[in-house]
Structure formats: C-alpha cells, structure tokens
Amino acid sequence: MRNPKVRVATTSLAGCFGCHMSFLDMDERIVALLEQVEFNRSPLTDIKHCDPCDIGLVEGGLCNVDNVHVLREFRQNCKILIAVGACAINGGVPAMRNHYSLQSCLEEAFLNEIGVDNPMIPNDEALPLLLDKVHPLHEVVHVDYYLPGCPPPADAFVKILTDLLEGREPSIPAEILHYD
Amino acid sequence: MNRSITVIEIDGQAVPFDEGQTIMDAAMAAGIYIPHLCHKPGLTPHGSCKLCTVDVDGRSVSSCTMPAVNGMKVSNNTPALMEVRKSITQMLFVEGNHLCPSCEKTGDCTLQAVAYHLGMLDGHYPQFYPKRAVDASHPEILLDRDRCILCALCVRAGREVDGKEIFAITGRGIDATLSIHSESGLLGDSDLSVDDLAAHICPVGAILIKDEGYEVPIGRRTFDLHCIAEPGLEPVILRKGDHTDA
C-alpha cells in the first residue's frame, strides 16, 4: 500500500501574499514536493476549510477577528504550525498601525485621505471587525516553528519542508536566514 | 622594555593582553568575536547591553568592562551563553518596534546581525509595540526612537569624539528615552552635524542620515554578505557603502 501523502494547508492572514509568491518561487522543485505532499486548505487549491493536516503554513499577522478565527482553525487541524514571514512573527508592516488608534487609522484612510470620494468608514456587517492592535501569531496560539523573512526565500521553504518530511528538526542555515 | 607576558584563556585559547585591557579588548585584538551592541573600540565602555556576558571562573561578567587578569579562564562561545544572549536580543526586539522590512538600516543593522549570529527566528516574548516619537526636524539626520536600543553609543561619541553634548538617556526602566539637548528638545535645533561620529555610530536604524537609505540595495549590504563574527568588520560597520562589496 502506498504511504498517504503529507497534508499541507496554507493561508495568508494580515499579509500580502508575498510569502505565498516566494513559496512558488521554488519553481520546478514543487513537482518533487507534490510527490510527497498534497495541499488542503490553501489559496492554491481554493479549499475553504481545513481537514486534519500534518503541516500548516500561516502567512501574515492578526488584524481582524476573521484572522483569529482562521488561525484557530489551523491550530486545531494542523499537527505542526509554522509562522511564515515577518508579519506572522512580529506583526510586520501591518503592525506599523499600532502606533495610532484604530479610529484615527480609519479616519485617515476613509475620511481624510486626499482624493476620497463619498467619505464613509465601511461598516457592512460582512466585514470582519478590526482588532484594536495587530498581533503576531504566537500571542494567540502555540506556534511550532518560525520561518523569518519578508518574504522567506524559496530555499527556506524547501529546507523547512524537506527537514520535516525527512523527520529532522528543522533548521534554517545562516546563508538564507534574513528578516527583510 | 621588560614586560612579562600576560595571558587569559578564552574557550581554551590563550589570548595575550596588555595591562589595562578588558576581556573584550583582548578578544578583539585576537580576532575572537564576543557578541556586543553597546561597545565600540575607542569609546568608554558602557556595559549596558549585556550581550557580551561571558563566564569567568564560574561568574558572569560583562567582557567590555571587566579588566583582563593574568590566568583568567573565560567561557564565551558556549551553548548556554548563546541561549542567554539570544533571549536578551529577543527582549530588545520586542521592546522596540523593530520591523526590519520597513527599516532603511536593514542589512546594515548590528542588532539584526547579532540576531542572525545567534540564530534568532522569533521574538518569543509578547510585543510591546511602544509609541515613541520620531524626530525629523534636522535637515540631514532622522531620529526614529522606535528602533533605539539605548546603547548610548551616540551619547558617548558626541561627548568623547565630537565634543558635543547632544544626546542623553533620560528616564528610567521602560520609560528611558533618548533625549536631545536643545532648547526645543528637537534634533533640528541642536548643533549635530552630518560629519559627527554621533550621526553615524547608531548600531540600529534609530539615527539615520537622510537621502542615502537605499544607496546600497537590500541583499548587497554588509550583513547580507558577511557574518558579524568575521574578524575585521568593526570599521566597516560604521559607514555603510564604504566596504568593497557595496
């Protein structure tokens, strides 16, 4: 009987999808990876909810209640959760809004910004409520491993996944470790 | 001159030193890297960042302030010390707003380079996200206190090299802040010049020279190409763009 594939889920929360783009920068190496893994919930598959998974890759920090909800779904379903990229690890660029009150951010973006037509702060009930501050993942759930970078280079994705698939404790070599 | 040879041992390696040198002085002269942020040769040691903590005969001391004594046995590169130094570095990261992707200093930042050297992957502790004032009043120099680690290198460079009392650390504990000695408290009203050492010595992105932030592209900067533990980097760290790789 064939071994079942390792199931991987990915998501982007308060991020820019740059980490996902960098993940895809592994180019043809994804073919070999797909011999061993299958993607579950991910923007790459458009599957909307997690089945039980082996590895969860979470890009972005937490800026609204939906982010928190998705993160908890990932934590509940993924045996190993990896915080991917600067925003997941310390809030990153979105956390620059933590300098200001949420109200003043909304007023700047939707009322006072130059060129705003029909100034109004969006309040449709379908919109997830914003958190008062942007937070990194580890302040809400337990995170197993961290993959720094903005974005982490494709080589770092390959390295951490290869380590896990081969049953090793993941490590990021100094040459590909950076925070920018 | 008849001088007896004085030697300390760092991780089992015999390291000669001259009377009056600290453990850090002796290590640097021998090309041994002891992580540090608040120390710069030529300035009075400050002993505040504690990254250079080493074990001497079972006691933890700051190597930048501890005079070398003949026969001392110093442990530097041990897993336990590296772990403690990593924790100190993580605390420095979470206490400020160190968002590397948005910082002009990235790649040339000593805090970042030390963190790379220590294998830091995350901040571990909850983020403080402090609200600290930016001072852009000086025409050529920016002060972003978000990234200040209170190492006091600018304070000492001003006082000891430039002959100017411009910077000071005021307040205590979590309220400590980098203050400017000028009538308005603004950098623009001080006599800080772009030629002063104090304007260039900042190990992080707190004091930046304007209009040159991206002269060297990200990926080609000092610590993109070098590990901070490499001997001989000390002069290069001061002025980005001056090294041959740029």
Produce the secondary structure layout.
The complex is a heterodimer of chains A (180) and B (246).
Chain A: E1 6-12, H1 18-24, H2 29-36, E2 37-39, E3 53-59, E4 62-64, H3 65-77, E5 78-84, H4 85-90, H5 102-112, E6 130-135, E7 145-147, H6 154-165
Chain B: E1 6-10, E2 13-17, H1 23-29, E3 53-56, E4 59-62, E5 73-75, H2 79-95, H3 110-117, E6 134-135, E7 141-144, H4 153-162, E8 167-170, E9 177-180, E10 207-209, H5 222-225, H6 234-238
Parallel strand pairs in B: 1-5
Antiparallel strand pairs in B: 1-2, 3-4, 3-5, 6-7, 7-10, 8-9
Structure report:
- The complex is a heterodimer of chains A (180) and B (246).
- With 180 residues, chain A is α/β, with parallel strands linked by helices.
- Chain A has a single domain (6-176), classed as NADH:ubiquinone oxidoreductase-like, 20kDa subunit (Rossmann fold, 3-Layer(aba) Sandwich), CATH 3.40.50.700.
- In chain A, 32% of the residues lie in helices and 20% in strands.
- The model of chain A has no long low-confidence stretch (mean pLDDT 96).
- By secondary structure, chain B is an alpha+beta fold.
- Chain B has two domains: 8-77, Ubiquitin-like (UB roll); 98-238, Alpha-Beta Plaits (2-Layer Sandwich).
- Chain B contains six helices and ten strands.
- Chain B has a five-stranded mixed beta sheet with strand order 2-1-5-3-4, with helices on one face. Chain B has a three-stranded antiparallel beta sheet with strand order 6-7-10, with no helix packed on it.
- The longest helix of chain B has 17 residues, at 79-95.
- Chain B is globular.
- The termini of chain B are far apart.
- The model of chain B is unreliable at 241-246 (pLDDT under 50).
- The interface between A and B is medium-sized, with 28 and 28 residues.
